[in-house]
TrEMBL record:
Protein name as annotated: DNA-binding transcriptional MerR regulator
Gene3D superfamilies attached to this UniProt entry: 1.10.1660.10
Keywords of the record: DNA-binding
InterPro entries, alphabetized: DNA-bd_dom_put_sf (IPR009061), MerR-type_HTH_dom (IPR000551), MerR_fam (IPR047057)
SMART domains in alphabetical order: HTH_MERR
UniProt-recorded Gene Ontology molecular function terms: DNA binding; DNA-binding transcription factor activity
Organism the protein comes from: Streptomyces calvus
Lineage of origin: Bacteria, Bacillati, Actinomycetota, Actinomycetes, Kitasatosporales
Pfam family, one: MerR_1
Domain HTH merR-type residue range list: 13-81
Length: 222
């Protein structure tokens, strides 16, 4: 992640003053966040409270979410859900049947997928999209396929911020396509047929996208 966070395999701990400095906030703000339970409790050694890289990552994410217009109350609700046992599927909005496989990652493993680009801003964008959730000390990505494709695009030199921005635009079109096919199927078949026929809808979209890419690339080479 950022340069202040330990390298994979290491585990750094910080006193309150150092953590606040690294997170770019005041000690008073840190105490306020702790009282609001926006961050997990520190490890205590006598009268000394020790914080680690998970606290630092959470604080940086809070800052990014605030900058994007989220309220402290909303962030507090997310933090409570993350830390107190809501089902991962519920956190990610996946109570309904899905063909996607969630992936559990440590913060270090996530950083390895997107070396140098797991910034607070990108984390906040991924949380907004629903790509990421947090379950205890683990991060949960909503889809193995999306994780693999996103990391492959980044390895090809496309900035993660642009990948996420494009993902948000694709989401809008995908929702419209899903509505189109669900309406078509429900007009002519029982509701229980929607999940059985969804692979056909996916095949149509895949084929049309392939043809559209052919047309687009053909124009560029003319």
């Amino acid at each position: 992640m950022a340069e202040d966070i330990a390298e994979p395999g290491e585990r750094r701990e910080y006193r309150m003053e150092e953590l606040a400095r690294l997170a770019g906030i005041t000690v008073r703000t840190l105490r306020f966040y702790r009282e609001r339970k926006l961050i997990p409790p520190p490890r205590r050694e006598g009268r000394i409270a020790w914080y680690d890289d998970h606290h630092l990552a959470r604080l940086r994410t809070i800052t990014a979410l605030l900058e994007r217009g989220h309220t402290l109350n909303g962030i507090a609700e997310l933090a409570e859900a993350f830390d107190h046992g809501r089902d991962v599927g519920e956190l990610l909005g996946m109570e309904a049947p899905t063909e996607e496989t969630p992936v559990r990652l440590t913060p270090e493993e996530l950083a390895d997928h997107f070396a140098g680009q797991v910034t607070p801003e990108n984390l906040a964008a991924a949380l907004d999209l629903g790509y990421l959730g947090v379950d205890g000390e683990e991060i949960v990505h909503i889809s193995r396929r999306l994780l693999d494709v996103s990391s492959a695009l980044v390895r090809e030199g496309i900035p993660l911020a642009e990948v996420l921005r494009t993902g948000a635009e694709v989401r809008v079109h995908a929702d419209a396509l899903a509505d189109l096919f669900a309406t078509l199927i429900l007009r002519h078949a029982p509701e229980e047929a929607v999940h059985r026929l969804r692979p056909l809808a996916r095949s149509v979209v895949d084929a049309e996208l392939s043809l559209a890419m052919d047309r687009r690339l053909g124009r560029r080479t003319d």
